[in-house]
Each structure stands twice: as structure tokens, then as C-alpha cells.
Specification:
The chain is mostly helical and 503 residues long. The chain has 21 helices and no strands.
């Protein structure tokens, strides 16, 4: 039986490598992930309980319970459409280039190079900034978690000065890169562990806050029907601005595509993993959010906190030690999420570099012979993240910029191959194993509409009027900065030298 299983895996790996070779690439990465393991990694990339916990401020201030609960449900349903749309295309083109490669192959010859270039840069920038925001959120969440312990004056015991937050961020970033570089073959085991860890942590929080509920419990009409906007925006628009919370937690949906060359039978398994993971994420998100909303006490006070979840849990259990114990699973999940994002980001840089699209590509496309990872590309990503992290010294709202840019860039990148597929009448995807027919058309339209909403939406400040420089949303600045770099490199080098993926 063992030998038969081994044969099946080898046979599957060979077929996947042959398909990759037919697409024009030499197989360089080891296919170590099974169907379940790629689904687990997709789940870890989102790490929904952690992602929702670290960004609860946005819907809390923009719409209260209605934004928290129904915003999460609405965005999850939209992202199912995005995942299904990408799944159709991935069943035809399963490479580490992901949406970048797909945009090139689907676009008309006359503008395929430019469309792939733009999509590739958006995808890489999105990967880098989402990874940065995950690691930075872990640093901020750790500070807030420590401060459930208070001094005699009622102040948190840890000052959390900008330099302290930055140093914690550096520590988290280094840890994630070390694990990704040195422990690649054990990462699938870590992803599997994360599944059980996540649900154990969520259930512990759910039972504890609802059972103890020191400050009482809200009724169902408040949890599912109370809307309260304290952002300064008009109520309708305020609700939409608060969707950054849910969009951030689901933005990693397409990052799993960068792992296609390390997955057995990626053409069939990756599309299924993407769609099914969103359904699991939807359930995990509701299990996390509903208990927290039931025990929310002072909505306006919590809206003034950058990280309100530690305060909500402490208020519910009435104990600093108990609250911190319940926050530990979320902190560990944050580290695991950072490791997953670091892994996926290094593959996106590797894939884009092997087609010569990033300055210094000859270094970034190298796969380390002993570690079996694109180590140089991983280090490039780490250096860029640390450089961008310095923005925090100028604005404590830097995390808003990082998360905003990541969501904007990835959402736009996901839409590129979907849009060009629609332009060609979806002829290519009809040949894939994950073709959805008319349902696919509907998913495509929803995906493109979501992109058109996201780009202006998450460039907005969370609260208005903006009277303090620290409240400015720097997402458009970072986004435009990367866009200028990519266009300058295209004019200087790409226009004459970049030919795109092999055909």
C-alpha cells in the first residue's frame, strides 16, 4: 500500500512537472504539498481569526455590529466569486507566476507584455505589503495584549513607543524569514498544526467570553442589527470604508497560486483549495466575531482603540491573566500567518524575476541548492518590508497604509486575468478542469465590480475630518510610489528587453 501511494505521488509529480515544462519553465522547486496541505496553507495565509482580530477597529468605528458581522459575510461571498474565477484560470495555467502568467497568456498579443508587467508588479507589491502588514499587526497586537495588564494608575504596563513597536516588528520579520528559509520541508506540518490550533483558540475564546461575560451580554438585535458610525463619513459610505476589515482578512486568496509549482496536481487541487478555504474562513470568522460582539460594552470607547480586541476580551473575562491567555492563540496564529505569507511572497518574486521583470532579476530568481527555496528573493522582500516599516516613525497610522496597499494591489492583480479572460469570451478557461460555465460569468462580473470599488475605497482615511497627520492614509502614496518605480523600469529596460513568460 505504501509503495502504491508512493507511486501515485511520483506519478502525479511527474505529470505536474511535464505540464510546467510544456508551459515553458524548468521545474526547480520540490512538489511536497498534498491536496490537504495546500488547502491548509491557503487557510493559514488568511488566518481569519487573527486577521479579523487585528483589524476590528475599522468596522467598529465605521458601522459597529452591522459592519462587523454583515460586512464579513458580504465580503466573504464576494471573495468566493474571486476564488472561483481565479480557480478556472489556474486549472489551465498552474504556475508560480500566478495571475501574472495568466494575464500574459490570456491577453491579446498586442498588449500582453504590458498587461503582464502591470499585473506582475501589482501582484509582487501586494504580496510584499500584505506580508509586511501581517508582521506589523503582530507587533501592534502583542503590545495591546501585554497592556491588558495595567499599572495602579490604570495605564498599560508597556509604553509601546514607535521604536519598541518597530523592534518587535523586526523580531517577528526575522523569525518568519528564518523559519521559511531553514524549515521549508516542515512547513506543511506547521500549516496542519495551525488548523487545529486555530479552532482550539477560537472555541476557547467563544466559550470563555460568553460563559463569563462580566459586563453582561448584548441581545441579538444589537449584535445583528445595530448600526453606529463614528467615522465622520456619511453612514452608507462609512459602512463601505469599514469593509477593509474583511477585505484584509481575505486578500491573501490568490497568494496560494505562487505555490503551484510545489503542489501535486495543482491544476485540479489548487482551485478546489481556494474556494473551499473561503467557506471555512467564513465559518471561522463568524465563530470569532459573533461572541466578541455579544460582549462589547462601550462602543465609543472601543472605537478609540487601535487594537480593541484585547480590551473586549479583558472586559468579558474580567481578568488580565485570563485575557492574555486567550490572546496567546491569536498571537501564535499571527506568527504562523507571517511565515505563510513570507513563503508565498518569496515565490512570487522568484516567478516574476525568472522572466527578468525585477531589477537585478539574475539574483532574485536563484533557488538555493540546499534550502530548496528562492532565498535571495526572500531576502529582497524582507529588506523592502523593513524599509517600508520605517514609515511608522512618521505616522502611527502606517499599518493602515500597509494593509490598504496590500488589499488594493492584490485585488487589482487578481482582476487582471479575470478581465482579459472575459474580453476573449472565456474561451481558454472553458478548456480547464474547473470550468464553471454561466456561473463563471457571474463570478467574473462580481470580481471586477469589487475591484472597481476597492481601489478608491481603501485609499480613503478611516475617519474624517483628518486633523492630525498621524491619521492620514498613506496607502495611495505607497501605491503610486511602487507604480512609478515599475513604469520607470519598464521605460528604461522593459520596453526593449522584457518579452514576458516563455510561450
Amino acid at each position: 500500500m505504501v509503495s502504491g501511494d508512493h507511486f501515485d505521488e511520483t506519478d502525479s509529480d511527474t505529470a505536474a512537472d511535464q505540464m510546467l515544462t510544456s508551459l515553458g519553465y524548468k521545474p526547480e522547486l520540490l512538489r511536497t504539498r498534498s491536496t490537504f496541505q495546500v488547502a491548509f496553507m491557503s487557510f493559514v495565509l488568511a488566518s481569519v481569526p487573527y486577521g479579523l482580530a487585528t483589524t476590528l477597529y475599522y468596522p467598529l468605528v465605521c458601522g459597529g455590529p452591522v459592519d462587523i458581522i454583515w460586512g464579513w459575510v458580504a465580503v466573504s461571498l464576494i471573495i468566493i466569486c474571486v476564488a472561483a474565477s481565479l480557480g478556472e484560470i489556474t486549472s489551465v495555467y498552474p504556475t508560480a507566476g500566478g495571475v501574472y502568467y495568466q494575464a500574459f497568456m490570456l491577453a491579446p498579443i498586442s498588449y500582453r507584455r504590458l498587461s503582464a508587467w502591470i499585473c506582475g508588479w501589482l501582484y509582487v507589491v501586494g504580496n510584499i505589503t500584505i506580508t509586511l502588514s501581517v508582521n506589523f499587526a503582530t507587533a501592534l497586537f502583542l503590545v495591546a495584549s501585554i497592556n491588558v495588564f495595567e499599572t495602579a494608575e490604570g495605564e498599560g504596563i508597556f509604553a509601546g513607543e514607535p521604536y519598541q513597536v518597530f523592534l518587535i516588528f523586526l523580531g517577528v520579520t526575522f523569525l518568519c524569514n528564518i523559519v521559511c528559509a531553514l524549515c521549508n520541508k516542515w512547513l506543511p506540518i506547521l500549516d496542519t498544526f495551525a488548523i487545529f490550533w486555530t479552532f482550539a483558540g477560537v472555541i476557547a475564546i467563544l466559550i470563555s467570553v460568553l460563559a463569563v461575560a462580566k459586563q453582561g451580554r448584548r441581545d441579538a438585535s444589537f449584535v445583528f442589527g445595530h448600526f453606529e458610525a463614528n467615522s465622520g463619513w456619511t453612514p452608507g459610505w462609512s459602512f463601505f470604508v469599514g469593509l477593509l476589515h474583511a477585505a484584509y482578512a481575505t486578500s491573501s486568496t490568490g497568494m496560494i497560486l505562487s505555490m503551484c509549482e510545489e503542489v501535486r496536481a495543482p491544476a485540479t487541487q489548487v482551485p478546489k483549495a481556494m474556494v473551499l478555504t473561503i467557506l471555512f474562513n467564513l465559518a471561522a470568522g463568524l465563530l470569532t466575531l459573533i461572541p466578541l460582539v455579544f460582549v462589547i460594552d462601550d462602543l465609543k470607547y472601543l472605537s478609540s482603540l487601535a487594537q480593541p480586541v484585547p480590551a473586549i476580551i479583558k472586559g468579558a473575562v474580567g481578568s488580565s491573566g485570563g485575557a492574555f491567555a486567550l490572546l496567546v492563540p491569536l498571537l501564535v496564529l499571527g506568527i504562523i500567518c507571517g511565515i505563510g505569507c513570507t513563503t508565498a511572497t518569496s515565490r512570487s518574486i522568484y516567478a516574476f524575476s525568472r522572466d527578468g521583470a525585477i531589477p537585478g532579476s539574475k539574483w532574485w530568481k536563484v533557488v538555493h541548492p540546499k534550502l530548496d527555496v528562492p532565498f535571495n528573493g526572500m531576502m529582497l522582500s524582507m529588506v523592502v518590508q523593513i524599509a517600508l516599516g520605517l514609515i511608522y516613525f512618521g505616522s502611527t497610522a502606517a499599518f493602515n497604509a500597509f494593509s490598504g496597499v496590500g488589499v488594493i494591489a492584490l485585488t487589482a492583480a487578481y482582476s487582471a486575468p479575470i478581465f482579459v479572460s472575459m474580453l476573449e469570451g472565456r474561451k481558454t478557461v472553458s478548456t480547464g478542469s474547473f470550468y464553471l460555465g454561466k456561473i463563471g460569468w457571474a463570478c467574473n462580473i462580481v470580481s471586477i465590480s469589487w475591484t472597481l470599488l476597492v481601489i478608491p475605497l481603501f485609499s480613503m482615511p478611516t475617519t474624517v475630518p483628518v486633523t492630525d497627520p498621524s491619521l492620514v492614509n498613506y496607502a495611495p502614496v505607497v501605491f503610486v510610489g511602487f507604480t512609478v518605480i515599475s513604469l520607470a523600469w519598464y521605460i528604461a529596460w522593459g520596453r526593449k528587453n522584457y518579452v514576458g513568460p516563455p510561450t
